[in-house]
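Record 1 of the preview.
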Amino acid sequence: MATKQGKKDNRLSDKEAMHIAETTDVSPKQAKDLAEKHGKDKGAKEARNFKAEG
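->
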């Protein structure tokens, strides 16, 4: 059985996504998409930048 070793799990829980959505102008789905694309920490930063640009 092959596994993805060394691959970091960048998925957000619903609770984490809701927290980011409540503190920024992104939806929970957008928060999850940003986390998958950029990683959890960078995704949250990108969400805050989205709020600042809006």
